[in-house]
Design brief:
Layout (H helix, E strand, L loop, with lengths): L2 E8 L2 E8 L7 H15 L13 H10 L2 E9 L2
Antiparallel strand pairs: 1-2, 1-3
Length: 78
C-alpha cells in the first residue's frame, strides 16, 4: 500500500501525518477526509464527516470549518 506524507495546518499550526492509501495517488480532498476521520478518532465528541462520495470542494470546506487548511500531499517511496 502506498504511503503518503500529508502536510497541513490545524488552526494555523503546521502539522504532518503519514497515511497509507490503497490507491497510487491521494488527492488533497481525500487527504482532508482522512484528516477529518483522524480528528474524529481523537475528539471527545463526534465530528460531522462528509460522505466519502461528497464533491471535493464540499470535503475541503468541511475540513476548513474544523481548522484544516493548506493540505498538501507528498507520495513517499512504497
Amino acid at each position: 500500500m502506498p504511503l503518503f506524507h500529508v502536510h497541513y495546518r490545524k488552526d494555523g499550526e503546521s502539522r504532518q501525518l503519514d497515511l497509507d492509501h490503497p490507491q497510487p495517488t491521494l488527492a488533497p480532498h481525500e487527504a482532508a477526509l482522512a484528516l477529518l476521520e483522524h480528528l474524529r478518532a481523537d475528539a471527545e465528541n463526534s465530528l460531522a464527516l462528509p460522505p466519502a462520495d461528497a464533491p471535493a470542494d464540499a470535503i475541503l470546506r468541511q475540513a476548513k470549518v474544523h481548522g484544516l487548511t493548506d493540505i498538501r500531499v507528498e507520495k513517499l517511496a512504497s
